[in-house]
């Protein structure tokens, strides 16, 4: 494992590269035969810039040789106040991706560790994620566990 990368919080100026990596990330779901995108890359760039700008989403990036090669995003999910316990938010972890050329070198673990440090320091109640089959072992190595109390209702659109 090499550590020729740095991890830092994402900046507004990163939105274009983050959008490009998002498109690359989603193309992997189609095993080399992605369909034509249904929306332009600029939509993703605008979406990312808006959310990073207003603070509703946070992100961390891994850089190798001065280029962003991975990222992870965090969205805070507010909880209703209650009289007997804190109502600290829960963090929703998503859009976790490292370029194939940089995988298995520690960048992915470093991204999640940065996110975990931030989450702990800000008092989040916990972190939730819907992992891919490939990312599940990494999440588990970093302490993520199957939930004891969670139900999901998929809604057919």
Q: How would you characterize the overall build of this protein?
A:
It contains four helices and five strands; from the N terminus they run E-H-H-E-E-E-H-E-H. The chain has 157 residues and is α+β, with helices and mostly antiparallel strands. Helix 1 crosses helix 2.
The neighbouring-strand order within the major sheet is 1-2-3-4-5
Please state the structural category.
Answer: alpha+beta
Strand content: 15-25%
* First-last Cα distance: 43 Å
Write the layout of secondary structure elements.
Blueprint: E1 6-9, H1 15-27, H2 41-54, E2 57-64, E3 67-77, E4 90-98, H3 107-121, E5 127-129, H4 136-141
Parallel strand pairs: 4-5
Antiparallel strand pairs: 1-2, 2-3, 3-4
Summary?
The protein is an alpha+beta fold. It has helices spanning 15-27, 41-54, 107-121, 136-141; strands spanning 6-9, 57-64, 67-77, 90-98, 127-129.
């Amino acid at each position: 494992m090499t550590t020729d990368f740095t991890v830092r919080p994402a900046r507004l100026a990163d939105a274009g590269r983050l959008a490009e990596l998002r498109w690359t990330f989603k193309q992997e779901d189609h095993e080399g035969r992605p369909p034509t995108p249904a929306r332009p890359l600029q939509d993703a760039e605008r979406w990312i810039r808006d959310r990073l700008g207003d603070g509703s989403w946070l992100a961390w990036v891994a850089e190798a040789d001065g280029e962003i090669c991975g990222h992870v995003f965090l969205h805070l999910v507010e909880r209703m106040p209650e009289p007997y316990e804190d109502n600290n938010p829960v963090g929703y972890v998503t859009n976790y991706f490292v370029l194939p050329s940089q995988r298995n070198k520690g960048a992915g673990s470093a991204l999640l560790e940065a996110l975990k440090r931030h989450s702990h320091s800000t008092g989040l109640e916990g972190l939730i994620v819907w992992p891919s089959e490939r990312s599940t072992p990494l999440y588990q190595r970093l302490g993520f566990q199957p939930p004891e109390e969670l139900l999901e209702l998929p809604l057919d659109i």
